[in-house]
Write a structure and sequence with these properties.
InterPro entries: Arm-DNA-bind_5. It holds the Pfam family Arm-DNA-bind_5. This is Arm DNA-binding domain-containing protein. The protein is α+β, with helices and mostly antiparallel strands. Strands 1-2-3 form a three-stranded antiparallel beta sheet. It is flat and about 80 Å long.
């Protein structure tokens, strides 16, 4: 059986599932992050750990967001002939190529091309707006830095 070893942090991962008819189905699994929600009791109050190393810290329920994409590619579970072994090898190569393409598409959709950004904001104007909206007392360093950067 051509087992897939996933020891690297790839997104998407090439995974396999054994079917009842003796074949192995290949699919891609995308990891889309996780959501943490606080655990609440019946009254709606935050629940805290009562013992152990986490004592006194709030409890959270974590949900991992994943998406699966079926590739409709199948491997033979126990190939008996050289032709079946060759077919498994070619199918795995095709699946890894598809995974690499999907990884590139996924990265581009999540991050985008960084060179496409059109930076039209003037930093000094942005910094002046930041200083104007700054409410704390230690703004003297901000004004000093802005004055120095305007003179140079």
């Amino acid at each position: 059986m051509a087992k897939i070893e996933n020891k690297t942090k790839e997104n998407p991962k090439l995974e396999q599932n054994k079917l009842s008819d003796g074949r192995i189905s290949l699919y891609l699994e995308y990891y889309l992050g996780r959501e943490e929600k606080p655990v609440l009791d019946a009254n709606g109050n935050q629940v805290y750990y009562e013992d152990g190393k986490m004592q006194g810290k709030p409890k959270f329920s974590v949900k991992h967001n994943r998406r699966k994409e079926n590739l409709n590619l199948y491997l033979m579970d126990k190939p008996r002939t050289p032709a079946e072994r060759q077919q498994n090898k070619e199918t795995l190569e095709l699946a890894t190529k598809i995974r690499a393409e999907r990884e590139q598409e996924f990265k581009e959709s999540m991050l985008g091309y960084r060179l496409k950004k059109d930076c039209t904001i003037n930093f000094l104007d942005y910094f002046q707006a930041y200083i104007d909206s700054y409410t704390k007392k230690d703004c003297a360093w901000c004004k000093l830095h802005l004055a120095v950067s305007k003179t140079s």
